[in-house]
Design goal:
Strand order of the largest sheet of chain B: 1-2
Oligomer: heterodimer
Radius of gyration of chain B: 18 Å
Number of domains of chain A: 2
Largest sheet of chain A: 6 strands, mixed
Number of domains of chain B: 1
Strand order of the largest sheet of chain A: 6-7-8-3-9-10
Shape of chain A: globular
Strand content of chain A: 25-35%
Order of helices and strands of chain B: HHEEHHHHHHHH
CATH topology of the largest domain in chain A: Rossmann fold
Structural class of chain B: mainly alpha
Number of helices of chain B: 10
Order of helices and strands of chain A: EEEHEEHEHHHEHEHEEHEEEHEH
Shape of chain B: globular
Radius of gyration of chain A: 24 Å
CATH superfamily of the largest domain in chain A: P-loop containing nucleotide triphosphate hydrolases
Helix content of chain A: 25-40%
Largest sheet of chain B: 2 strands, antiparallel
CATH architecture of the largest domain in chain A: 3-Layer(aba) Sandwich
Number of helices of chain A: 10
């Protein structure tokens, strides 16, 4: 079987606490009957803003929550009947990377390994995440990035076939985020299938083979990031600032320039359908001795895809 | 015993002895209270079994009982709430570990701590305040274990109902205050108004303190200790039934 995870019509309804029951509404549908599958060996991302239902979906797969209805198969096992067997074969990094603060890294890894009835290769695991020198440090003495890397190591104690990462880089600085990305890639290269949630567009674009875009409990689209971007009818935008008056005719003869907007002067925006048009556009501006500055080229991102799918600007 | 249970037990004990501010509450504060009550000129003597006993000897078993009680109602409850709030419990629940194994390891480690506190406080009494412990020490451990189990389970239950410190504070106070002042920790309850006395007589801490006190002050195992033991067992059964019904770590 090549699909590691098969989810069909997954639904999760929460009872609202009494205080939040407005106008007779007593429950809240966090996940509204979603379906998707994850292929063996891929990095699969679930992308969406807070409250989209990403964590709920993940926690159902991990066995922390029970679905209201729908089916979840992990490694061919039904989550309603084989929860214990599933737990032995998956690794999990939760959204919070908190541990018992007064334990050392090697103690915690040995403890977690014992929960899987195995022994931890502490040096190898910590070496992998570049924390060998912190082996005997207490968890409370780690920085945010180190904690996150340690969390990855602790998720690997049982040599999982699938690794779940819930917002692995939230709250990290750019450098620490890069480190985590590299680690995720290297884990994946070892053959571990990875499922991650994120609300960072660039994380999904950079890491994921395929991305499911989630919003308000629904999956809106699933595809590889570049396909998703190509699927929307957004062209590349070239923009620059100039005091000179420019008309559409200036671009005559340049292949790929579709449309020009100069409504927000001094900013001029060109829609182009071909990146090769960028060079000729610059050359034309120089040839006509037009003074321009802040020349930028902006291609579509997953943010534009989200905007296209939901009609909303992506906000975390 | 499985190696995971041993590891969990080890973890729980490490967390207790590495926690400096926790050690203050588990050892130093009860010792200070005991020393203060022994040194201050309270001067009262109480009749108890075989005659007159000075206050230092009277209050030591009470302090031990109070310490055991606080370890459950405050110590364990707040510790569990902290772990839940920080998502640490969840981290264990995504492993094959059984919830019951996690909880039992926590309880066993805390009972060990309670017995350690009992020994420590008894030694302070013996060494500095001429307390003589004539009891069968094993029987003291049995009574202390029963008492500790009751209060640890109550602490556990509190952490099931309250998810935050703010929510837990009024509950622990409401439970802890009557246990502290209506049991016979600091003084015999005979002088209290009838209603309060009846309440006191129903509380498990009364029997914990009385059991240890009788064992410390008299030789052999008097009949009243068996009554204490029976009442504590009864309480344990009740709390256990409630705990098993209400117990859940997941949503």
């Amino acid at each position: 079987m090549s699909n590691v995870i098969e989810i069909s019509n997954l639904k999760k309804v929460y009872d609202l606490p009494r205080a939040d029951r407005k106008s007779g509404k007593i429950n809240f549908e966090a996940v509204k009957g979603i379906s998707f599958s994850v292929k063996k060996g891929e990095i699969f991302g679930i992308l969406g803003p807070n409250g989209a239902g990403k964590t709920t979906t993940l926690e159902i797969i991990e066995g922390l929550k029970k679905q209201t209805s729908g089916e979840v198969f992990i490694l061919g096992l039904d989550n309603r009947t084989s929860g214990d067997e599933i737990k032995k074969r998956i690794g999990v990094q939760l959204q919070s990377s908190e541990y018992m603060n007064l334990m050392t890294l090697s103690e915690l890894l040995e403890l977690f390994a014992s929960l899987y009835e195995s022994k931890a290769n502490v040096d190898e695991l910590l070496g992998f995440v570049n924390l060998v020198n912190k082996k005997n440090s207490l968890v409370k003495d780690l920085s945010g990035g180190q904690k996150q890397r340690f969390t990855l190591a602790s998720g690997l104690v049982n040599d999982p076939e699938v690794l779940f990462l819930d917002e692995p880089t939230t709250g990290l600085d750019p450098r620490a985020r890069r480190d985590v990305w590299e680690l995720v890639r290297r884990i994946n290269e070892k053959g571990v299938t990875i499922v991650l949630t994120t609300h960072y567009m660039e994380e999904a674009e950079y890491l994921c083979n395929r991305v499911a875009i989630m919003d308000s409990g629904e999956v809106l689209a699933i595809n590889d990031p570049s396909q998703l971007i190509n699927s929307i009818a957004t062209t590349t935008q070239v923009s620059f600032l100039t005091e000179d008056v420019i008309s559409q005719e200036l671009w005559d003869g340049i292949n790929g320039v579709e449309e020009m907007h100069s409504l927000s002067a001094p900013k001029v925006i060109l829609e182009i359908n071909n990146l090769d048009a960028v060079g000729p556009v610059i050359k034309r501006l120089r040839d006509r001795k037009i003074n321009f500055s802040s020349f930028t080229v902006k291609t579509a991102t997953l943010e534009d895809v989200y905007l296209d799918l939901t009609g909303k600007v992506f906000e975390v | 015993m499985s190696s995971s249970f041993n590891q969990l037990l080890l973890m729980n004990l490490r967390l207790v002895y590495r926690n400096r501010s926790g050690l203050f509450f588990t050892l130093i504060m009860p010792t200070l209270i005991y020393v203060a009550l022994s040194v201050l000129p309270i001067g009262a003597s109480f009749g108890s079994g075989n005659g007159q006993v000075n206050y230092s000897k009277y209050v030591l078993p009470g302090i031990i009982a109070m310490t055991i009680m606080q370890g459950g109602i405050y110590g364990l409850a707040y510790w569990m709430i902290d772990l839940k709030a920080r998502g640490v419990i969840k981290r264990f629940l995504v492993t094959p570990l059984k919830q019951s194994e996690l909880i039992i390891s926590v309880l066993v480690s805390r009972v060990i701590v309670a017995l350690g506190q009992t020994v420590f406080l008894a030694l302070v009494g013996i060494i500095f305040f001429h307390v003589t412990v004539s009891a069968n020490i094993l029987f003291v451990f049995v009574i202390a274990t029963l008492g500790a189990s009751i209060f640890l389970l109550i602490g556990l239950l509190i952490s099931m109902f309250a998810n935050t410190y703010e929510a837990a504070a009024p509950i622990t106070t409401a439970v802890g205050l009557p246990l502290t002042f209506l049991g016979n920790i600091f003084f015999p309850t005979e002088g209290l108004p009838k209603v309060l006395r009846y309440i006191g007589e129903a509380l498990p801490i009364t029997y914990l303190a009385d059991g240890i006190r009788t064992l410390f002050l008299t030789t052999g195992i008097p009949k009243s200790v068996w009554v204490d033991l029976a009442v504590l067992l009864g309480w344990l059964m009740i709390i256990l039934v409630v705990a098993l019904r209400k117990f859940r770590l997941k949503e």
